[in-house]
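dumping the sequnces here before i forget
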Amino acid sequence: MEIDEAREVRTTCPYCGVGCGVLAKIAADGEVTVRGDPDHPANFGRLCSKGSALAETIDLDGRLLHPEIDSRRAGWDEALDLVASTFSKTIAEHGPDAVAFYVSGQLLTEDYYLANKLMKGFIGSANIDTNSRLCMASSVAGHRRAFGSDTVPGNYEDLELADLIVLVGSNLAWCHPVLYQRIAAAREKRPGMKIVLVDPRRTMTADIADMHLAIAPDGDVALFAGLLAYLAEHDALDDAYIAAHTTGFAEALSAAAELDLAGMAAATGLSEDELDRFFGLFAATAKTVTVYSQGVNQSSSGTDKVNAIINCHLATGRIGRPGAGPFSVTGQPNAMGGREVGGMANMLAAHMEIENPQHRDRVQRFWNAPAVADKPGLKAVEMFRGVADGRIKALWIMATNPVDSMPDADAVKAAIKACPFVVVSDVLADTDTVRHAHVRLPATAWGEKDGTVTNSERRISRQRSFLAVSGEARPDWQIIAEVGKRMGFGAAFSYTSPSEIFAEHAALSGFENDGVRDFDIGAYADVDEETYEALAPFQWPAPNTLWHGTRFFANGSYYTPDGKARFIVIRPTAYNPINPGYPLVMNTGRVRDQWHTMTRTGKSPRLSQHMAEPFVEIHPVDAARFGIGDADIVSVSTAHGHALLRALVTARQRAGSVFVPMHWTDQFSARARIDALVAPITDPISGQPASKNVATRIERF
Ligand code: SF4
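..and the predicted 3d for all of it:
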């Protein structure tokens, strides 16, 4: 492509779900600089350390520049023919459910849309799942149970308008730093704003909090069930809202009230005084936003946690109003875009439901597809079990590194190694996953690719190219379309640009919709190349809203058959995996300056200075109990694997549990693949792995 060296290109950061706008520029000597886009409504010019270092991560070092078959260089035609013919043959011999795609919240919406269309509409299986399953599947399930749709009710402005922000299982300061900065700036203007952090660890986010509740692992359901009972007891309910806009309150309250204060204290690990103070603050503050992230979602009771939170907001009518609502923040840059196109094994495109025959019929007619999958496919953990036991015989992995990032990662690695046919599309030539691929397809990287992403507040922004494409790399959408054509579905995959795909995606969202489904960007169905190129960030459902946030449910009308939100009956269940052999709980998470398996951020020396090596945080009491000193090298073991890590002894850690970052791989540090230690236990509803509560042992090495 032609590069205008004098022009700054408006694009978005490829890391977290805040979705910050970035201005990227190439100087005459080829040097790339980035700065925050002052006009982007997510960040207004701010960038965090990762976003600021983007220019340091775009080089050709380690790039996959040509297609490869069995480690030899191949041409595109040969590679694509092999992928298409092997998938077709596998389907012909073993049926459509013998193949699978494992995709990523790093894909752009257009890529995601086509992968989903090919698998669900033309192959006829729903075996497409995503690493977003590891990120926010419990929120999706919780939203659908309560609202009848996967709708995020509020927006970022609500965080600035709230009088109380409750952060649950969210280290916003490190994991969504610009959102944290926005809250900190709002609090500076309005010192009366209160912030409560609910997290087993005293993270950096606690530094801004008025109250830190160091909750026991997975104590959140008990906490919010207790809150619901407290609200009822203390006359803090919005009875009119409950009566007019909800169903199931009495049953939900009855279940919530089963725990008395002492039982709640035992289940949450919090004192009765702490519980009382938090409950009192929540009850007294009408403008409350509850923000939750992986500490809620990555749990064997993740969906129940989400609904326990939503129950409290419905009971107080604090939803769909400025400065009030439950608010899930997504980890990945395009987890939301993936949800919009149905890029998960249990969803259809445009927020339609795979179990609903009318929805399937609608999607099939719209796509003119031979057969739309009629049952959910395998969710991530189950998908790799399917690879291991031979149900899946051909697997295509796009833009993700499951050999390092899936729970029980050694078992996933063994499954991929034994799979008869593995295709990987990636920007890198040698990740732990790419290494095991039979066919490697070079994909364009951030800066080279073009499309859209959706952030945590439903804002769709363009990601634009400003770099020439490296080697023979191709955009993911083009690779998928080429395989679709070669499988005999040419007419449905004859796109020439991402704008055509976006227009089709928008048209499907509006197709026979008329307000019956939440996701509708049908106004963009006739977008042309020029309009797409100039597309300003907008927040669905309202087009051209720019920074003025939109809210769902302002009128109390939901997407359930009766239009009412559903209270969910939830009973706190204790999940405590520890035993004498593994007496501690391992909690996994992120650090400020690294992203996922470090394939990009690991390139920046500046980012590596913050936390230079993998570590385990341990409370001084536990350190003394196991004879561990600060900075010792320790062995951290679970029933699934072990790692060698540097001990950081700190009272910020909750006694009885340890924290380990998930980023390091063997490429960066020997024996530090943390997800190899994580048990493949999942939430029974969402299928999201429980990566924050794993029985562990720690010993001095
Ligand atoms: Fe990128 Fe997230 Fe940082 Fe914004 S907050 S610059 S989206 S990593």
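The CA atoms of residues 511 and 522 lie 7 Å apart.
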